[in-house]
Amino acid sequence: MCDFSGIGRLDDKGRLTVGTPDAEGGGLILVAEEGGGVVIPDLEPNRAASGYWCGHNGSFIWTYRRAS
Questions:
Q1: Alpha-carbon distance values, 35 to 32, 40, 51, 67 (Å)
Q2: pLDDT grade, residue 6 (50/70/90)?
Q3: In whole angstroms, what is the distance from residue 18 CA to residue 25 CA?
Q4: DSSP string of 32-68?
Q5: Are 29 and 36 spatial neighbours (Cβ–Cβ below 8 Å)?
Q6: Cβ distance 25 to 51 under 8 Å?
Q7: Phi, psi values for residue 57, rounded to 5°
Q8: CA separation (Å) from 12 to 17, 48, 54?
Q9: What is d(CA 19, CA 28) in angstroms, rounded to the nearest whole number?
Q10: Are 40 and 29 in contact (CB under 8 A)?
Q11: For residues 13 and 6, is the Cβ–Cβ distance under 8 A?
Q12: Could you tell me the maximum CA-CA distance found in the chain, to the nearest angstrom?
């Protein structure tokens, strides 16, 4: 189980960053896809956030789709 919250902003590559992505797990990088999906890519800041904000073997790194 994971729990993370923060305020997002777009970076110069059009990715949404929530918090300040760093090696301490301080933030996430999210990438929006066509059709409303979101990808949290396998990047070092996202691995750090998963290690800090998730329980044993939990991870944010995944492709998500909007549920209605």
A1: 9, 16, 29, 12
A2: confident
A3: 11
A4: E-GGG-EEE---HHHHHHHHHHB-TT----EEE----
A5: no
A6: yes
A7: 65, 15
A8: 11, 22, 28
A9: 7
A10: yes
A11: no
A12: 34
Rg, C-alpha atoms of the chain: 12
Q: How far apart are CA 51 and CA 53, in angstroms?
A: 6
Residue 46, token pair as written in the block: 């996202």
Three-state SS at 10: strand
Total residues belonging to the chain: 68
Residue type, 17: T
Q: What is the mean pLDDT of residues 58-68?
A: 87
Residue given tokens 């492709």 in the structure block: 63
The answer, as to whether pTM is greater than 0.85, is no
